[in-house]
Amino acid sequence: MIRTGIFGGSFNPIHNGHISLARQLCEKAGLDEVWLMVSPQNPLKAQADLLDDQIRMEMARLAVEGETGIIASDYEMHLPKPSYTWNTLEALKRDYPDREFVLMIGGDNWQLFDKWYRADDIRNQYQIIVYPRRGCEGGIDGLDLIDISSTEIRECIQAGKPINHLVPKAVAEYIKEHELYA
């Protein structure tokens, strides 16, 4: 069985923290690969400043170019909406029977996990790896987290501040070229 971590998010935009975390979790959790699952819609988040699905997907693809074991995935974009994690995991299990899927979520989402659709079923049928997030307790130990957020990046762009140190070079160039988040 190929152990595949599912690291879902809006990636609005994807940043160096996401990539670093995927690398580290792949190693520390004994995963063969991590799929960055670009989510079309999070039932628990407002959609006001969410860029188009294909734009976020393209930035994710650019961010993982040259990365070993980290894959940008649009799988969830082809499922019925809203995209509930339970439905995604069950569809993945059906479509990829040679894989064992492991859910990777931040401590912030873990605190809300009981509100998730079919939370008990997810807990009972899938391994869950919780990684630490700012202001949240718990999570896998020994991770070197880059403390940045997509919200902070969008705010930097709106304030005219540089983001080159926060996102992969190709993503920074894409954002600038397409005048995103301005």
UniProtKB/TrEMBL annotation:
Signal sequence, renumbered to the chain: none
EC numbers for this chain: 2.7.7.18
Single Gene Ontology BP annotation: NAD+ biosynthetic process
Parts of the chain that traverse the membrane: none
GO molecular function, one term: nicotinate-nucleotide adenylyltransferase activity
Taxonomic superkingdom: Bacteria
InterPro entries: Cyt_trans-like (IPR004821), NadD/NMNAT (IPR005248), Rossmann-like_a/b/a_fold (IPR014729)
Cytidyltransferase-like domain location: 6-155
Catalytic reaction(s) noted: nicotinate beta-D-ribonucleotide + ATP + H(+) = deamido-NAD(+) + diphosphate
Pathway(s): Cofactor biosynthesis; NAD(+) biosynthesis; deamido-NAD(+) from nicotinate D-ribonucleotide: step 1/1
Keywords of the record: ATP-binding, NAD, Nucleotide-binding, Nucleotidyltransferase, Pyridine nucleotide biosynthesis, Transferase
Family statement drawn from the similarity comment of this UniProt entry: Belongs to the NadD family.
Protein's job: Catalyzes the reversible adenylation of nicotinate mononucleotide (NaMN) to nicotinic acid adenine dinucleotide (NaAD).
Name of this chain's protein: Probable nicotinate-nucleotide adenylyltransferase
Organism, as annotated: Xylanibacter ruminicola
